[in-house]
Amino acid sequence: MSESKAALKEFQTEVRAWMKENVPAPPPFLLPLSFLEVGTEQQLDFLREWQHRVWSAGYLGMHWPKEYGGQGADPAYQGVVDRELGAANAPIMFNTIGLGWVGPLLLEMGTEDEKAKYLKAILSGEEIWCQGFSEPDHGSDLGAVQTRAVRDGDEYVINGSKIWTTMGNYADHMILLARTDPTAERKYDGLSFFLSPMKIPGVDAVPIRKVTGEYGFNQVFFTDARIPASTLMLEEGKGWQVAMKTLEYERGVQAGQGTSHWAVSIQIDDLIDDLRGFERDGEPLFQDPSVRDQAVTLIMEAKALALSQRRMRLSGLTSDFPMGLPLSSKYRGTEWARRMKLFGTAMQGASSSLYMGDGDAYRGGFWQRAYFSNFGMTIGGGTTQVQANIIAEHVLGLPK
User: Fold this and answer.
1) What is the pLDDT of residue 1?
2) If you ran DSSP here, which 8-state letter would residue 33 be given?
3) Is 132 within 8 Å of 220 (Cβ atoms)?
4) How far apart are CA 107 and CA 67, in angstroms?
5) What's residue 85's pLDDT?
6) What letter would DSSP give residue 91?
7) What are the residues whose beta carbons fall under 8 Å from the beta carbon of 120, sequence distance 6 or more?
8) Is residue 356 within 8 Å of 348, Cβ to Cβ?
9) Domains along the chain with CATH numbers
């Protein structure tokens, strides 16, 4: 065993012991399955305290520079922590947009003032971030953004609306894509990117009830909201460039996230273990060849996804299509998860129609809730259909 592997193994033992002592017991209320479902003050307070505890122990954003609240460690150490968080069934890190997209973006493209102002508060959970990209009439077509930002002295006046804004009603800041030049010849050239404050006059976040019955998404309305001109990233007209870099982090194409533990880990092994006690026509469920065939297909796909993640890190194995695996991982992963959770629901037979709140629902309707929640994953970061088009055009070189 090399010294680095030995060091990581020793660190893993340390983290595992810390988890055993510090992972809180489940609270008397429902916790969200992912950061997309944080919908109550109870949930928020619980998760904020947990994130702060993990960060205080030095286990969050470990590879971010020390001067911004990190540990300046090798990224492999954060990977160890994230795996142990999943293994311990620990609560999620709720401030995902800050930890996963804003933080890496600022470390790569932000000024020293921006890094000093925002990064530590992202890690500690003190300040919450949301994303203002999608709009009600334009969905995933970011080039068609119509929210306006008009310069007025040392401020910009914002008018418009954003949709699917995760945690927008709790957020302190928004990464905002807005149109500063409606006359630009290319629509992309008229867009600018802002680190916009949220808790100001003229900003109203309205929660949206999801198919699960939970909240988390919002529609945000800007009505003559005034934000400092200093919140502009880069310069006017460079918003598309910054937004595309942000999406690379959101889609997992680029590394640098403060953590990957933003959702409850639901693996194929969990599904198989859960279904072992079910029967069909008086026989164990997995005696049915059709059920076994579907289960084995899901198992093979899970293995392929895991191997693809490893292959992504070896440039010699991705030289034919360098961005193929990173761009397709979000598309394939979220769609596999949707089908896996649907299988876990459907195999319950008549009980599959029961949901949370029904006393007869298996595991309190866990698989049903997980299935419905997963639709948010197939939409966020670009819908499944948009992802397929990106892969077709930018990886395979197919025509529009």
Assistant:
1) 40
2) S
3) yes
4) 12
5) 96
6) P
7) 68, 69, 126
8) no
9) 3-128 (1.10.540.10), 130-247 (2.40.110.10), 268-395 (1.20.140.10)
Distance separating alpha carbons of residues 305 and 267, to the nearest angstrom: 12
Instruction: Round to whole Å and give the CA distance between 156 and 150.
Output: 5
Tokens standing for residue 18: 């810390």
Give the pLDDT confidence score for residue 3 in this predicted structure: 57
**Per-residue confidence (pLDDT) for residue 253, from 0 to 100:** 67
Residue 72 region, left (φ>0) first, then alpha (ψ -120 to 50), else beta? Answer: left
Q: What is the rounded end-to-end Cα distance, in angstroms, of the chain?
A: 50
What pLDDT sits at residue 228? 98
Helix axes of 268-275 and 289-312: crossing angle, nearest 10 degrees: 160
Half-sphere exposure at residue 288, Cβ-oriented, CA atoms within 13 angstroms: 15
Q: Which residues pair with 222 in a beta bridge?
A: 160, 203
Which helix (H) or strand (E) covers residue 160, if one does? strand 155-162
Active site residues: 250
Amino acid at 367: W
Structure tokens at 347: 């195999």
φ and ψ at 126, to 5 degrees? -65, -40
Question: What six digits make up the tokens of 128?
Answer: 């919450």
Six token digits for residue 232: 């502009």
The Cα 165–Cα 364 span in angstroms is 28
Task: Kindly report the three-state secondary structure assignment for every residue of 320-333.
Answer: CCCCHHHHHHHHHH
In 3D, which of 86, 91, 107 has the Cα closest to residue 258?
107
Enumerate residue ranges in the chain where pLDDT < 50: 1
Tokens representing residue 53 in the block? 């505890």
**Residue recorded with tokens 């060091």:** 7
